[in-house]
Design a protein that fits this description.
Layout: H1 26-44, E1 49-50, H2 58-69, E2 74-75, E3 78-81, E4 83-84, E5 90-93, E6 98-102, E7 118-120, E8 123-130, E9 133-138, E10 145-150, H3 159-170
Length: 178
Amino acid sequence: MPDLHSAGPARSGPRTVRRARSQPGLPGLRGLLGLFGLLLIAGCSPGPTPVPVPSPAPEVAAACAELVKALPAKVLDAERREASPKSPLTAAYGDPPIEMTCGVTPPAGMAEAQSQCFEVNGVGWFAKQVENGFIFTTIGRSLYFEVAVPAKYAPQANALTDISDAVHRFDKLVTPCT
């Protein structure tokens, strides 16, 4: 009868030690869930929005940079977001983006626009309806500051109330609306 208490035959060479998993596959599942969570969060943030950058004269660019810097953190309850390319002359808010650009050229039709000027909190604006909203441009001021507001934010002119303080401080009045 064999001896059950004996150590058995001697082994030569190194032994392989295997670790037993208490929960097979769980670390991989955790990693997959973490990756999914990151993708979900990234999918919710709109990312940079393309905003064309004008090429104004250096003194206009310097004044515009101060104006854009003074814009509020929110417009129509939409948070400020990154514009692309990064420029001190542009800003964007929300999704779809409300786009702001300082140092633009006057829009077509603005020469006759003095009669079309309307005021919001003491700032005169020229309004142009476009396919998906309105583009507003300051009128009667030293800088041409443009605000493009998508139809989602109707009435779009309400966005102008949120930015009027910055325009008052950094865009000098030349001719008031009549």
